Amino acid sequence: MLIGVGLAGIGRHVEVVGWAVWFAGVAVAHDAVFAPLVLGAAYVTRRAPAVWRRAAVVAGTVTLVALPAVLGFGRRSDDPSVLPQAYGRHLVAIVTLIGLVTGAVAALNAYARPMGKAILSIVGVLLAIWLVFMVIGMIISALKFLIWIGFLAVIGAVIVTLISKMAKSS
């Protein structure tokens, strides 16, 4: 039903032909441009370690999101407050940071596997203990809440009983 309401709103407030062309264009752009690029990147990096493939996915996603700002789409000469930053340098810095963090993770995976496994085990145990205490705290607070509700219900019942006995006696 909500889809029907949305489509009716599109029909009333939007030029349907232009919307349909845009919608079809997005599908064509995905199938003709983005999907082959992703498949090609997956083919090229198929022998790379998983940590570097993940970094490539993150860097590619960040680049794709930042590309309109880097290219200056929407920048206006009469309003300097629109896109005022050096987005190209920022993108390079972020992708470089992704590469540095990935290199550090790859180095840790290569040279510190036993220590990393022990550290992750300790962190996992600490998180499990924290979770248990959080759950116990939540259960105790729920019980306190229910006890207070029960106490208020008993007080309410006593008050109603006293009022009804006073009404009968007069």
3D structure, described in words:
There is one protein chain. The chain is mostly helical. Helix 3 packs antiparallel against helix 4. The two termini are 59 Å apart.
Shape: flat
Counting DSSP E segments of at least 2 residues, the number of strands comes to 0
N- to C-terminal separation? 59 Å
Strand content: under 5%
Counting DSSP H or I runs of 4 or more residues, the number of helices is: 5
* Average pLDDT: 85
Low-confidence stretches: none
Cα radius of gyration in angstroms: 31 Å
Structural class of the helices, strands and pairings?
A: mainly alpha
Element-level helix/strand string: HHHHH
What composes the largest sheet? none
Overview in brief:
The chain is mostly helical and 170 residues long.
Topology, please?
Blueprint: H1 2-13, H2 16-44, H3 50-71, H4 87-111, H5 113-169
Helix pairs in contact: 3-4
Main traits of this protein?
170 residues; 0% strand; 85% helix; mainly alpha
